[in-house]
Design goal:
The protein is mainly alpha-helical. The chain has one domain (about 5-330). It has helices at about 5-35, 40-50, 55-60, 60-75, 75-85, 85-105, 110-140, 160-185, 190-220, 225-230, 235-255, 255-280, 300-330; strands at about 280-285, 295. A hairpin with an 8-residue loop joins strand 1 and strand 2 (about 295). The longest helix is centred in the middle third of the chain and has 32 residues, at about 190-220. The chain starts with 6 loop residues before the first helix and ends in a 12-residue tail after the last helix. The model has no long low-confidence stretch (mean pLDDT about 90).
Length: about 350
């Protein structure tokens, strides 16, 4: 079946772009958090926090805007997911809040135990966020049980299926790698040497998990390949994605960390594109393929989508300009000054 480029497709793409932007930008924040306890030196931890300090809260704007866009464009999806995944989303939101508190509170006191507590909280919450995001995407890939009333009919432990757990661990490894590469652009000296070792570990873990995820998807979600069977030219996307992933260790080996970061970001974008192509035109597939929520039966009215499109055209340039501006202002290596984390 052919789908014209209408407002429903446009908003499916826009929500995907917003979530991809969040994964790329907040991904290295989460990776930095997971790496924080890899060093015991307080000054090095402060440098790592300063590397993300000016940008981490701005990066989360992409998640807020993406959630708002999902609510406005596809309200039935928002209702089903947020009611059915209540406990999982509560854990995710708690981790997001705890991470923010940890960043802001850790330097309010000079005590070693105080800072160790908040550093541990930051590390653990970053890991939990990355894992839960991957598990959530994994459940969308497999499909969830949805009743005729569009209510989720499973339980919490239904979400812990093999593919979801593999994708969750893949997300953890990917953000670990992404964060290490980002830090290589911001730090110097002994910490840079440590960062190089973390990059190699992250790349190795991500490549292993990526291969495992590919095999798990073949066994547990073979329907993801239907788009490529119907439109063979789309096979170019996974090929390009694989080449981008293969380029990461090459750029790291040659010391071209900016290109390595670009490749890492590209790999995240490629995986998100594969995810979107695999589920389209569904947004939340029903595991029985009966009551799936699609971009048509779960969407707002055309009038609402039209108004939202106008707002997006006016508002998105400001979000993009803010993001570019803040990274330009805080470009270069991290400096330890009076105002720090």
């Amino acid at each position: 079946m052919n789908y014209p480029l209408d407002l429903n497709i446009l908003w499916f793409l826009l929500v995907g772009v917003l979530l991809t932007g969040y994964a790329i930008l907040d991904g290295f924040d989460l990776g930095t958090g997971m790496l924080l306890l890899r060093t015991k030196d307080d000054m090095q931890r402060r440098i790592m926090l300063n590397a993300i300090g000016p940008v981490w809260d701005g990066n989360e704007v992409w998640l807020v805007v993406g959630g708002g866009a999902l609510f406005a464009a596809f309200p039935h999806v928002y209702a089903t997911v947020f009611s059915g995944f209540y406990l999982a989303l509560y854990l995710l939101l708690s981790a997001l809040i705890f991470r923010a508190v940890a960043i802001e509170f850790r330097s309010r006191e000079e005590g070693r135990k105080w800072r160790q507590f908040w550093d541990t909280a930051f590390c653990v919450s970053s890991f939990v966020i990355a894992l839960l995001l991957g598990v959530a995407l994994g459940n969308i890939v497999v499909g969830i049980p949805i009743g005729a009333d569009r209510e989720y009919t499973g339980g919490f432990f239904n979400l812990l299926n093999p593919l979801a757990l593999v994708l969750g661990l893949t997300t953890v490894a990917m953000f670990y790698m992404h964060g290490a590469i980002y830090l290589s652009l911001k730090v110097e000296g002994e910490l840079l040497d440590k960062t190089k070792a973390w990059m190699k570990q992250g790349i190795g873990a991500f490549c292993v998990m990526f291969l495992l995820l590919s095999v798990a998807t073949f066994f547990f979600a073979p329907q993801m390949a239907l788009s490529f069977a119907n439109k063979p030219w789309l096979i170019a996307i996974p090929i390009v994605g694989a080449l981008i992933i293969a380029n990461i260790p090459r750029e790291v080996h040659n010391g071209r960390f900016l290109l390595a970061f670009a490749s890492s970001s590209g790999s995240i974008a490629a995986l998100m594109a594969l995810f979107g192509l695999g589920i389209f035109p569904n947004i939340v597939p029903d595991i029985a393929n009966i009551n799936s929520l699609t971009i048509y039966n779960a969407a707002s009215s055309q009038a609402t989508l039209t108004i939202m499109t106008t707002i997006a055209i006016c508002g998105m340039p400001f979000v993009i300009a803010y993001t570019i501006g803040i990274y330009w202002v805080f470009r270069g290596k991290v400096l330890i000054e009076e105002l720090h984390y």
